[in-house]
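Feature request, filed as a ticket because there's no other form

It would be nice if the structure record came with a short human-readable summary line next to the tokens. Right now we just get the raw output. Example of a typical job, pasted below so the devs can see what we mean:
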Amino acid sequence: MKCDEVRILLSALLDNELTPEEKKNVADHLANCEDCRREYASLLKLKEVTDDMKYLDLPDRLWAGYWHGIYNRIERGIGWVFLSLGAIILLAFGAWRLLNDFFLSSRPPLILKIGLGTLLFGMIVLLVSVLRERFFSRAHDRYEEVEL
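Raw output as currently delivered:
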């Protein structure tokens, strides 16, 4: 067997998942290959260390804090969804009314329409920019969990 083939089978050997024929082939190779023997010894040591590991139980206060954070994120997420939908509906209705009653009307002068259109466009660009910046900085705030 080649070293590449044996290295693939070393984990299976440790877990006793090889057929007798595969075990013999791997053992023969290990007897003649120092690199593969070192790899096998390393994996054997790692298995011994990980077999002795035990999970620690977390204190109840940590679990409570974890679930409290989950519930807060879910509540806030739902709140933001409804707030966004409401704002979109109101803004769409307002834009439709503004378009119909002001911009498509022949009564207001053209300069007033241009001025108001430019002002509204600038406000929308600034609002989107500020919201995007706040969202990005909130998602990357390193001190969010710090309690004073």
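Something like this underneath would help us a lot:
The chain has a mean pLDDT of 87.
The chain has two domains: 3-51, 60-139.
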